[in-house]
Amino acid sequence: SKLTSLGQLDMTWRSRVHFHPLLVRVLHKSRLRYYGKPEKKLDMPYQAYFEVADGSGMMSMVLWNSLCPEWYNSMKVGTVLLLEQYAIKSSYPFKTQPTPGDSQMKRFATIEISLNVRDPPTKINIIPEEMVKPEWGLPEVKYRFITRSELDDLPNNHSCDVIGLVTFVGRAERSRKREHGEDFWLYRWAHAIDGTSDQPFILELFATSQPDVFEHIHPMTYLVCTQMRVVRDLTENPSSTIYLTTSNESQIFITGWHKGQPYTKDTKVKNFIQWTKTQNEADQMKKTVIGGYYPFPRPPNNFLKY
């Protein structure tokens, strides 16, 4: 059928009501957002953002309401979609922006693709990877993996992906979203090593929309975290309190979930797997810890500083 591209949509969307089908690859995926309020009678007030791309560039795509429980888990990073009967809207200005793995990619930031159950009812097709043709010109998913030895040189808020062997995982903790609100964020701390430094990655992992992964992080699993942000305490000793925290677009994977993920082709991931083959499992097991209270960043040594 006659296809359009994101670049053509960007130029012609105001003058059209109906759009030709789109063929795109998912490059980033946000956590699922629930926006229900007691006074609004919506059946399924859910929303999820994806960043999708074709040969012309990258654009945001929004999955709305009852399409979320139906499609959210099937639309993985790397999935190729054929979209028909979608809507185009001006983009929401305050949404978070993931850092693209390919810095050269053009970004269409003024509009977004809207997928709804009606007005118009969107048709979504997932194209199996083995049927994707090179001549479609869809971009590959690219990552920004770093090693632990590179972390100390990175600036605050830098976006990166990491892989490591889990040596510590803390209990799930909660913090209030707002001072006197009823809502909580759920998170846990983890340490992961990759053999390039004596220090582990210190990871603050908020519960994403992957409860089956979040609840099963345990020592000795291979942990991949994408779209992590560097957090530095710039006031105190900067090197002692550097850690990574999840962003709205972070994805977490553990042993058993890696098969078929696009990052398995990445050089740094392959290097890490080679390193793990040189390690003695029993020796690493002795150094692992699970649970307990983990105060971080650590309070100062004396009370006056505190």
Automatic annotation (TrEMBL):
InterPro entries per record: NA-bd_OB-fold, RADX
Matches recorded under SUPFAM superfamilies: Nucleic acid-binding proteins
GO molecular function, one term: single-stranded DNA binding
Pfam families, per the entry: RADX
Protein name stated in the entry: RADX protein
Species this protein is from: Chordeiles acutipennis
Protein's gene: Radx_1
